[in-house]
TrEMBL record:
<dbReference type="InterPro" id="IPR038732">
    <property type="entry name" value="HpyO/CreE_NAD-binding"/>
</dbReference>
<protein>
    <recommendedName>
        <fullName>FAD-dependent urate hydroxylase HpyO/Asp monooxygenase CreE-like FAD/NAD(P)-binding domain-containing protein</fullName>
    </recommendedName>
</protein>
<dbReference type="InterPro" id="IPR036188">
    <property type="entry name" value="FAD/NAD-bd_sf"/>
</dbReference>
<feature type="domain" description="FAD-dependent urate hydroxylase HpyO/Asp monooxygenase CreE-like FAD/NAD(P)-binding">
    <location>
        <begin position="6"/>
        <end position="183"/>
    </location>
</feature>
<dbReference type="Pfam" id="PF13454">
    <property type="entry name" value="NAD_binding_9"/>
</dbReference>
<dbReference type="InterPro" id="IPR052189">
    <property type="entry name" value="L-asp_N-monooxygenase_NS-form"/>
</dbReference>
Length: 626
């Protein structure tokens, strides 16, 4: 007999699951036939976010050598590890023949392992990976791609899943359904609906949280004052599209800085956020010493028994881990800047608790320069406690801050920052395992993990290429971008009929005719614009403790294998889900090589359970459920 697998979402996550299906098939499924159906309106492999059809100005925030879709020996999983090339290695293999597209071929041939490629070039890598996965499947596995949208799923009388598609009347019948939906749009919340209505009534423009590549930025007029709330990657994309994308030009200066030549079609951008500064630039250098062996102090298995509180039990070990990764590189890669040998520092450091006076004394006596000491408080809130009398003072301060960040992230003498980055990645993966075990207090998971930690991690580790911040400095010099400061607030001025914004950094207030929420929508089952997810009947994650209760909006799945859970916590017999819309919280579909990526481990565990279920159903007679 045979079985049918339907995967809704054929982007990088769906491709990763299919690769794990192929790798584990010989062990768990035998010689039976398997029909696989992939459903996605966007090109398979690349999906929506990484599709070719987007502006060539939009780029990745990872270097080519730091992007892979393939497992390696660092990944701890039950299934076989099948290796493959990183984006940089793949580029080397096709450099001579090119990609058919003259513009992409030119980018390909100019690219180095340390380049930050365009998303269009990444789309070609992802499409190649998808094609390679298909080639590696045995003949008994058929794959059909449906370039359409799945609108709903229902239970068939015989227990299979009926997957309804937008372009056909009859459903696909699936023995097992896997949802790898990727990043989705969401309906606006109450505040966003109010701002949108205010804009309509007053002839203003309002853009809610959404993916910048799909946002209608054309409604923003040349020369008008536009507020942008958010200083992360969505802002960086909007900045590029509204400046260089409208004909402006950046010119390299003799001192290495950039000068911006406006086209006259740009709006005037006023940007702010909670921190009031952009995400840290990605580093462009490599470690001088060996990569720090992680995890060292923070792992899910090493945590004490019983319920855990984030600030009391978890963060001290995470901070110690991240700082250890930093000092491992500083002491081993820059020995002239420390006053103790690494073995002695490591021995004494390991014996001390994080945050206490003995730890501070060890660091201060071992690391003479304050510039070389890791200060989480200063990193987290760089404008905290600062108040400027005028906006011009704020502009100069933020400009200097960004320039210093670019200088540090492009100077290998500060490669200890990269050691901290690797420790951040390790801590991120270990925390995901801790959350999967359900040991963290509900309130802490909401406020500390989904709140503070998620923002801090993105701020430190998910920033743009350094040249994007150099462009930001040039735009600031040209008066095209103005900094609003920290703790940004926005209000609808009912009397003036305009948006108003300010911050805790300066008393000055800006009036504008447009507001852009420069951030991505939060994942939510109830508010998703994806019809299938919204009507799935799955249960959103509800975190409760004592009198605290919070609905995260995320689809509940069983951490061990990705099975969707019902209201009683019972796993669905043949529905699985992975990705940003689930409470697995490990959403990156591809990763750096050699970091034991959580998503790769999840893909393998889910694929193995899917194959066990498919094997069972392939050998079982169809039984009609009354």
């Amino acid at each position: 007999m045979s079985a049918t697998l339907v995967i809704v979402g054929a982007g990088p996550r769906g491709t990763g699951v299919l690769e794990r299906i192929a790798a584990n098939l010989p062990e768990l499924y035998g010689e039976q036939e398997l029909a696989v159906h992939l459903v996605d309106p966007f090109p398979p492999g690349a999906g929506r976010v990484w599709r070719y059809e987007q502006s060539p100005l939009l780029r990745m925030n990872s270097m080519a050598e730091d992007v892979t879709m393939w497992l390696d020996e660092s990944v701890t999983c039950e299934g076989p590890v099948r290796t493959g090339p990183s984006l940089a290695q793949w580029a080397d293999s096709v450099r001579e023949e090119g990609l058919g597209d003259p513009e992409l071929t030119a980018e390909l041939r100019a690219m180095t392992p340390a380049s930050f490629p365009s998303r269009r070039l990444q789309s070609r890598y992802l499409e190649w990976v998808f094609a390679q996965v298909l080639r590696d499947l045995p003949e008994r596995v058929s794959v059909t791609v449906h370039a359409t949208t799945a609108t709903s799923v229902t239970d068939a009388p015989d227990g299979r899943q009926q997957v309804w598609l937008a372009d056909r009347r009859e459903p696909l019948l699936a023995d097992v359904l896997v949802l790898t939906l990727g990043h989705l749009d969401a309906d606006p919340g109450e505040e966003q609906r109010d701002l949108r209505m205010f804009a309509r009534v007053n002839g203003l423009r309002y853009l809610p949280p959404e993916y910048t590549a799909d946002s209608n930025l054309s409604v923003l007029r040349a020369g008008e004052d536009v507020l942008l709330r958010g200083f992360g990657l969505a802002f960086v994309d909007a900045m590029a599209l509204l400046t260089e994308g409208r004909g402006g030009r950046f010119h390299e200066q003799p001192d290495g800085s950039l000068r911006y030549e406006p086209s006259g079609r740009e709006p005037r951008l006023h940007v702010g956020s909670r921190r009031g500064v952009p995400y840290h630039a990605k580093t462009t250098y490599r470690l001088r010493a060996d990569r720090p062996p992680l995890p060292r102090f923070f792992s899910a298995d090493a945590m004490p028994d019983g319920p855990l509180e984030f600030r009391r039990d978890v963060w001290p070990l995470m901070a110690k881990e991240i700082a250890w990764g930093y000092y491992h590189e500083l002491f081993n890669g820059h020995r002239e800047r420390v006053a103790l040998d690494w073995a002695e520092f490591d021995r004494r450091y390991a014996a001390l608790d994080w945050g206490g006076a003995p730890m501070r004394e060890l660091v201060e006596t071992s690391v003479p320069s304050t510039v070389d000491r890791l200060d989480f408080e200063a990193l987290d809130k760089p404008l905290r406690g600062l108040r400027f009398d005028t906006s011009e003072q704020l502009q100069r301060h933020v400009h200097s801050y960004v320039a210093a960040d670019v200088a540090r992230r492009t100077d290998q003498s500060f490669s200890a920052d990269l050691g901290a980055f690797y420790a951040l990645l390790s801590a991120y993966g270990q925390l995901a395992a801790l959350l999967a075990a359900g040991r963290l207090a509900a309130r802490d998971q909401v406020h500390e993990v989904d709140g503070w930690w998620s923002g801090f991690f993105s701020f430190m580790a998910s920033g743009p290429p350094d040249d994007r911040l150099r462009q930001l400095l040039a735009l600031s010099d040209a008066g095209v971008v103005r900094f609003l400061g920290a703790d940004m607030w926005v209000e609808a001025d009912q009397h003036g009929g305009r948006f108003r914004a300010g911050s805790s950094s300066t008393p000055e207030v800006v009036t504008a005719t447009a507001l852009v929420e420069a951030r991505l929508p939060r994942p939510s089952v109830r508010h998703s614009r994806d019809e299938l997810l919204r009507t799935l009947g799955g249960v959103e994650e509800l975190l409760t403790a004592d009198r605290f209760s919070h609905n995260t909006g995320l689809l509940r799945i069983r951490a061990a294998d990705g099975r969707v859970l019902d209201a009683q916590g019972k796993p669905h017999p043949n529905r699985f889900a992975l990705g940003a819309h689930t409470n697995s919280r490990a959403v990156a579909a591809f990763a750096r090589p050699m970091v034991n990526a959580p998503a790769f481990r999840q893909n393998d565990a889910a694929a193995r359970e899917v194959l066990r279920e498919l094997a069972h159903r392939a050998g079982a007679p169809r039984v009609r459920v009354a």
